[in-house]
Amino acid sequence: MPTSGNMPGCGASMCKGKKKALKMEDPAVVAKLEEGFQKLQAASDCRSLLKKYLTPEVFDKLKGQKTALGATLLDVIQSGVENLDSGIGVYAPDADSYLVFEDLFNPIIEDYHVGFTKDDKHPASDFGDLSSFVNVDPEGEFVISTRVRCGRSLQGYPFNPCLNEEQYKTMEAKVSGLLSSLTGDLKGTYYPLTGMTKEVQQQLIDDHFLFKEGDRFLQAANACRYWPSGRGIYHNDDKTFLVWVNEEDHLRIISMQQGGDLGTVYRRMVAGANEIGNKLPFSRSERLGYLTFCPTNLGTTIRASVHIKLPKLAADKAKLDATAAKFNLQVRGTHGEHSDSEGGVYDISNKRRMGLTEFQAVKEMEQGILELIKIEKSM
Ligand SMILES: Nc1ncnc2c1ncn2[C@@H]1O[C@H](COP(=O)(O)OP(=O)(O)OP(=O)(O)O)[C@@H](O)[C@H]1O
Ligand SMILES: NC(=[NH2+])NCCC[C@H](N)C(=O)O
């Protein structure tokens, strides 16, 4: 939890541009911070962006600061300190952290989102021409399934480490109530995690529909308190439209189906995001776009992915990674982030989510996947 304990309802609506840094003098927190910083400095094989950008100068500047809600640098970095194999290593415990700790967040954002500098402003939301996307694999030779997701935070609520159990439950009630009014292709049922049998839960995870449990990166960030309270999943009967409630973000809005029909998948996600957004106000910042718990998800918050088999390219995993990176794509394992590939299936998605529109982010994925397939065919 944030070092000063549970806070009253916070504005995740934030970021009017002014920093509200306060002084933090709690000796226990200062001691943990010093210890964590030493641990990072000593970890010579740690490759995280936290390690790269938490220089002694930045550390000294930020270690005595806190947000109005009491979130400290420790709340920001503790996941990356505990998990030295993190790729990123930081989370924003509340929206104001992106400003108060900007000397750390900005270079991480610039690095991850490929050149989104501290002076850049994320463009207005634009889903673009929904009819312009193709089936990336019409013959069904390579692509097993396609998924597009976005993340949303509810205005008026902080992020995980600052939420109390009552807030989790209130948010869950609000969101599930709204979801029950969806119609047509989006119509479905909300299943709270509380009371779900372990068998059903595991089957949903194995089938790629539900978030995993016990993510050590989220746990170390204090993002799993009161679990499973307030957490759950909504899905339509076909499990092609899904909403995750209160996992890493307040909401993850997901569309997925077998095959490579990116257009259909994207249109369904856009329809769902619009329906929900018309009824629930989301947190958005002028500069950062839609606000999320992890800086990798800011901006469009879009991750468009395929599960794909590219046996020739993937014979050399380093080559697959390098080729994908040329097209700003990221390669994950079959069960998502921090997992390995099974049966030659990779999850390949757009990496950057900031400094471009939703349309451009999905186009980047579409074009990149078409290129990878072309290369595979030529080998
Ligand atoms: N194209 C896809 N087809 C089927 N399942 C997919 C596809 N892309 C991702 N998944 C599944 O979605 C689940 C969640 O994956 P993962 O956690 O990596 O990504 P995410 O939900 O986008 O969020 P985050 O990036 O925050 O981790 C996993 O089970 C993963 O296998
Ligand atoms: N789901 C995410 N937010 N993924 C990105 C980062 C995950 C983890 N904190 C790491 O640094 O490796």
From TrEMBL:
Molecular function as annotated in GO: arginine kinase activity; ATP binding; creatine kinase activity
**Domain Phosphagen kinase C-terminal residues, every copy:** 142-379
UniProt GO cellular component terms: extracellular space
Q: Which Pfam families match?
A: ATP-gua_Ptrans, ATP-gua_PtransN
Q: Which Gene3D superfamilies match?
A: ATP:guanido phosphotransferase, N-terminal domain (1.10.135.10), Glutamine synthetase/guanido kinase, catalytic domain (3.30.590.10)
Annotated InterPro entries: ATP-guanido_PTrfase (IPR000749), ATP-guanido_PTrfase_AS (IPR022415), ATP-guanido_PTrfase_cat (IPR022414), ATP-guanido_PTrfase_N (IPR022413), ATP-guanido_PTrfase_N_sf (IPR036802), Gln_synth/guanido_kin_cat_dom (IPR014746)
Ranges where the Phosphagen kinase N-terminal domain occurs: 32-114
Kinase recorded as keyword:
yes
Q: Which UniProt keywords apply?
A: ATP-binding, Kinase, Nucleotide-binding, Transferase
Q: Which PANTHER family match?
A: ARGININE KINASE 1-RELATED, ARGININE OR CREATINE KINASE
This chain's protein is named: arginine kinase
Which organism encodes this protein?
Answer: Orchesella cincta
Instruction: Print the organism lineage.
Output: Eukaryota, Metazoa, Ecdysozoa, Arthropoda, Hexapoda
